[in-house]
Amino acid sequence: DLSSQEGVVLMCLAEALLRIPDAETADRLIADKISAGNWKDHLGTSDSVFVNASTWGLMLTGHIIKPDHEAMENPAGYLARIAGRLGEPVVRTAMRQAMRIMGHQFVMGRHIRAALKRSVTGENKVYRHSFDMLGEAALTEDDALRYLEAYSQGIKEIGESLANGAGINEAPSISVKLSALFPRYEYSQRTRALDELTPRLLALAEQAKAAQIALTIDAEEADRLEISMEVFAAVYRSPTLAGWEGLGLALQSYQKRARKQIEWLIGLARDCGRKIPVRLVKGAYWDTEIKLAQENGLAGYPVYTRKPSTDVSYLACARDLLAARDVIYPQFATHNAHTVASVILMATEDGAANTSDSFEFQRLHGMGEELYDEVVGKDKLNVPCRVYAPVGKHEDLLPYLVRRLLENGANSSFVNRIVDEKEPIAEIVADPVREVEQLESIPHSRIHLPAGLYGAERKNSKGVNFADHAQLETLAAEMSAAAGHEWQAGPVVGGTRLTGEKQEVFFPADSKLRVGQVEYASADQVVQALDTACQAYPGWDRTPAGERADCLSRAADLFEANAGEILAICVREAGKSVPDSVAELREAVDFLRYYAACARSDFSQATPLPGPTGESNHLQLHGRGVFVCISPWNFPLAIFTGQVAAALAAGNTVLAKPAAQTSLVAARAVSLMHEAGVPGDVLHFLPGHGAVIGAAAVSDPRVAGVAFTGSMATAQRINRSLADRDGPIAVLIAETGGQNTMIVDSSALPEQVVKDVARSAFNSAGQRCSALRVLCLQEEIAPRVIELLAGYMKELTIGNPAFLSTDIGPVIDSGAQEMLNDHIKKISAIG
């Protein structure tokens, strides 16, 4: 069972072993991982190849050396002891052999010629085939061009293998992944994708047309759907493809947009006057789609949360496709016998005399043979079936195989359930429509909407779907409207706006573009704020924790209601990209709601303590007094808000000092907190120079604590200043920068390493305290990882952070730029 600890261990081990170049590292990985599983629980308990092929592969070592009774009772410990002495090479050999066996089972051939030869021999010859070149998404231009050449060579060889007179539906076809043809296949790079990806797909389509074979675009993640439809339509409408009915695509029924997508495709086909082949699948990325929607705070899920709902959607989509057979050639990819029977019944409802010419089934190579033995052939149901046949090296098998096993090895899968003799047939072939009708709640009761990710305790922050054109248009309009004027900020003490030294604020990406003006506070205004905050502290501390929490919760709602303006300030003042700005706002909102929840749970009531009879002891938390919150410019909203919200939730009054470079967004945050009900005499805003504001506040003995994020040197100065004071010992909560290092060995997937390195090192223009500074690579994999990283970095866009297509914006100011240039000179000299 892939959901078991052993299943996870096995797939991690097998996937990593394929990449490890040296025996020593492979053996150490085996020794580390093999002891983590309880293999005995799985041995021989199922007839399913998905369970026992892997278990017997691992237990092969045990059978070779004839373990005793103790070993069979505790195979994990026994195998670990073997691996520690002399068994690692045997285990390694067994695992690699197991992967070769699975590779032969699930891959048609190592190259297209071998796959074509195998496809016309034995039992394979009764099937049609669609060949897919194994491999993951391209990260570099060189990788994309290699995939393009592989697809082109595949089309050439498939075309040359055809017998004269083979119709396009009967002939072998090829499946293409758009993510393999363009390294930035994502909505933020829509213009580039349309300009660069479309011609590549068109060239392949023209070649397939000339070869008289079909070309199908594989389905990928939900956030690529809109852009894939744009690319498809642009290619499909090309005059050079007129008269060819071979350009098709896969469509995922687990997506809630599936029927609308079919409606759109039917309209496109009618408009152009020729058929579109549509491969209907259920979908392979369900777990990913659910988790991404939760992580990104989307309004809902792009996929159904219940399997019966996906099954119903598949049947509804099948009916739609069958009803449009004049312009659609339906291809039903399924291993579910109930689905196959339903499709055949629907296909004959309209009295069609010969169903074999109007649609086909599809299955995966290595799976579903027994089911389609009852479908294919004139002496059976006489409906053709096409085999989706992967082509490639075993090293490329694992990512593909993991997706297939997740689809078909899941507990709810038909393929999994049909081999369980204990499962009643009536339940396996239950009508999904009736199952959905009988549900008490259509949304899954245990899969809350993304907003409810944290349960009743607090609401998840709202995100932005950067693949939703309509949502982006609305957001862009709000941000543009807000950016149409200059922002003003200045000291706010006791709820009153004061005046001070004026400073102009300019856009980091364009030093000539004025963003607004900030007035800096003076040392006297710091003292004035301290006086007011000290007087207000007792009353705020006595305010019920629930009321303080309500203020923070209302502030969170106001932050989201004013998202367009806040995001515009983050972009214009801090030079943050739009995605980074959205993440910044969401983190600030999460801080407000998190600390509100903490206030309700930790500060609302006293906790009784044990004590002697007749004595009553209670523990109750209170604020400490006045807190000074000093935040950095690299997270000008999130860290600023988090510090202030935590102090307020605990019952403290606050003097908030933002970074000099990013006072405008902090001022807007304070104004919204005041609007939410935080009293003006409780929260004071003091923009200005650290030497003025910090020195005046920190040295005052009335300050009960300091929350600081910034450099180590400044933190040490604050620490010494607090220690030198006469009066109560103050609290110092300091978060400082560090030298963050990533260590990568050969068990890591290079493509994932490169994505994580680029994200960590270059998001926020590398100005995060958590940004990756040093990358250490195992020598054997260094050339490939460096090649990939260099190629991927070339694909990143540096520019104006206001554009969604920009990956890396400017550093904060000229001082930061000079520091980076000095570092480059220094590190280059050392190198």
What would you say about this model in short?
With 831 residues, the chain is an alpha/beta fold. The chain contains 32 helices and 22 strands.
Q: Quick check: average pLDDT? A: 87
Distance between termini? 50 Å
Strand arrangement across the biggest beta sheet: 1-2-3-4-5-6-7-8
Strand residue percentage: 5-15%
Strands, total number: 22
State Rg.
31 Å
Which residues form runs of ≥5 with pLDDT under 50?
46-68
Q: Helical region count?
A: 32
For the sheet with most strands, the description reads: 8 strands, parallel, barrel
Q: What structural category characterises the helix and strand content? A: alpha/beta
Tertiary shape? elongated
Helix content: 40-55%
Layout of helices and strands, plus pairs?
Blueprint: H1 5-17, H2 23-34, H3 49-64, H4 69-73, H5 75-85, H6 88-106, H7 112-119, E1 128-133, H8 141-161, E2 173-176, H9 178-181, H10 190-211, E3 215-217, H11 225-236, E4 247-252, H12 258-272, E5 276-281, H13 286-295, H14 307-323, E6 328-333, H15 337-348, E7 360-364, H16 369-372, E8 385-391, H17 397-408, H18 414-418, H19 425-428, H20 432-437, H21 469-482, E9 487-489, E10 492-493, E11 496-497, E12 501-507, E13 510-520, H22 523-542, H23 545-561, H24 563-574, H25 578-602, E14 607-609, E15 617-619, E16 626-630, H26 638-649, E17 653-657, H27 663-675, E18 683-685, H28 690-698, E19 703-710, H29 712-724, E20 731-736, E21 740-744, H30 750-762, E22 772-777, H31 782-795, H32 814-830
